[in-house]
Design brief:
Elements: E1 10-15, H1 19-30, E2 35-37, E3 46-49, H2 65-75, H3 80-87, H4 91-104, H5 110-120
Helix pairs in contact: 2-4, 2-5, 3-4
Amino acid sequence: MKDARAPAPLVISLGVGDPALADRLAALLAGVPGLRLAAAGEVADAALVAPDRPAAGAGQGNLTSREIEVLGLLAEGASNKTIARRLGISVHTAKFHVGSLLDKLDATGRTDAVAHAARLGVLNL
């Protein structure tokens, strides 16, 4: 004779460093039949782990914090003159940072650099 009891739910733990993302995932998973989120310290059947955002330099050509700032401005469509003004640097220095970004991201232009950075997770669009 078969056991008519429902199978035990799959217990999932969340390994997500971003509290907002962890809350969103918990809310989404709470309504899934057959799943249950693991309590703190409980052994889970599976783990949902979000990778940390890659740090500058981890596969992104060793971008500096200033280059990441410049990249953000490039994503907004800023010119070298605008980048210089917003960051309080000379236009020559802005051009240098843009050129360095193009080299490090192996990009053919400003738009390509932004696209590469978005794919690598360096830049959130």
